[in-house]
Amino acid sequence: MSTLTQTVRHNEEHTAHACRFCGSTLLRTFVDLGMSPLCETYPAAADFRKGEMYYPLHVYTCGHCFLVQLAEYEKAENIFSDYPYFSSYSDSWLRHSEQYCASMQERFALSKDSFVVEVASNDGYLLQYFVRLQVPVLGVEPAANVAKVAEEKGIPTLVRFFGAQVAQQLVADRGCADLLLGNNVLAQVPDLNDFVEGLRILLKPNGVLTLEFPHLLRLIEANEFDTIYHEHFSYFSLLTTVRVLSAHGLRVFDVEELSTHGGSLRVYACRAENTSHKTQPSVARLIETERAAGLASLGGYKRFAEQVKETKFAFVEFLLSAVRQGKKIAGYGAPGKSATLLHYCGIGKDLIEYTVDRSPFKQGRFLPGTHIPIYHPDRIRETKPDYVVILPWNLKDEIMAQLQFVREWGGRFVVPIPKVEVS
Ligand SMILES: [Zn+2]
C-alpha cells in the first residue's frame, strides 16, 4: 500500500459515520451537495454580523440496510426548539389533513372513546379536524412557540421530543393510542431506533400507526435534491421502512402513494402480533416497484449525483442569461428546501433579487446564507418582475393560480425542479 493510499484510508476511517439504523460504517456517497447553513433559520439584518454556521450536506447510502442518510452535525434540540415552520399556511396541506382525519375516522371507527396521538403535531393543523369530529386528541411537539399556538386553538399539546421514554410516560398518564400518527417527522428523527421503539410502546395492542414521509423513490426519479437538508436526517424507501419498523415489532399492512411534498408514502402499521389487519397487496406491489428501480442493491442509488449536477448547470445557465438580458427575477416562497437549492447552485441576490412568503414570521427577514430578503407577497405586484421562481415547486399549481396577475405585465413562472421549466 502506498503512503498516499494509507493517508486516504486513514482519513476516511477517521471521519466515517455509523448508520443510524443498523450501525454499519457509511462509506458510499449518495450525493454531496457541499456546505449549507441550517435552512429553517431566517436571520434578521441585525444577525448578519454574527455570521452563520455552514454544515456539510453529504448524503450517504448505507451499504448494509440501504438507509439513505445525513450524519447529524447539529443537535436536533438546536434546530427544532424555536422552529418557524407553521403548517397551517398551506391551503392544500390543510385540505390533505382534513381528508386524512375523515378517512381514518371511517376506516378505523374512531369515536369519542378513542384516543389519537400525533407526534410532531406542529400548530395543531391536523388534530383540529379530529377535535371537530369529537375524537379526543393529544399532540406531542418539541417547539414550544408552535405548541403554544396549538394550545390556543384548544388542542392539548405536550412540549417534548418524542422517544421511548416519553412514550412510557404517556402510557402511564394517558394510556395507549388507538391511532398514532406522524407526518413528516420520521425523516427528522436523529435517534431513529429510540423513536420507533417509542411508537411501538405508545400503540394499543389493536391500534393503528400511520406515518407519512417523502418517498425516496420519488426523490430519485423526480430529481428532488432540494428536499435534502440538515433537518432531514433520513430518506426512506418502503423497503427500508418495513425493515426499520419490523426491527421494533411493527408490521406494515398497507401503503398509499400520495402527491404531497413531491411524492410521499402513507404507511399503515400495527403491532406484529395483531392479526386484525391483513397485509394488503399494495405493500408487495410497491416493494416490487422499488426492487425494479434498483433500490434493493447499491445500483439504484448511483445515478442520482450526476443528474443533480446537470440540473444545477441548467438552472444557473438560465438565470445568468436572463440577468444579462436585463430581466428582473424574484422568488416566491421561503421554504426550507430553498436553502439547499440556492447554496448548491451558488445563487445569491445578484440573480434572485428577493423572495416573498405568506408567513408573517418570515417577512422582513432573510434567507439563510444568501441573505436574499423575504417580503410580503404584495411586493411582486409592486415591482413587476419578469420571472418568478417558484421555490416550493411542490405547490406550483396552487401558487401559479394565486399569482395569475403576473401575466398582466408579461411575467413568467420558473420552476427549477425536476428540470428548469419556464411557463
Ligand atoms: Zn444501515
Averaged pLDDT = 91
**Distance from first to last alpha carbon:** 56 Å
Report the major sheet: 7 strands, mixed
Overall geometry: globular
Q: Work out the helix count.
A: 14
Q: Helix amount, in percent?
A: 25-40%
Summarize the SSE layout with pairings.
Elements: H1 3-15, E1 17-18, E2 25-26, E3 28-37, E4 54-61, E5 68-70, H2 76-80, H3 91-107, E6 116-119, H4 127-132, E7 137-140, H5 144-152, E8 157-158, H6 164-174, E9 177-183, H7 192-202, E10 203-214, H8 216-221, E11 234-235, H9 238-246, E12 250-258, E13 264-271, H10 281-292, H11 304-324, E14 329-332, H12 337-345, E15 355-356, E16 374-375, H13 378-383, E17 387-390, H14 396-402, E18 412-415, E19 421-422
Parallel strand pairs: 6-7, 6-9, 7-8, 9-10, 14-17, 15-16, 17-18
Antiparallel strand pairs: 1-2, 3-4, 4-5, 5-11, 10-13, 12-13, 18-19
Helix pairs in contact: 6-7
The chain binds zinc ion (ZN).
The site of zinc ion has 8 residues, from loops.
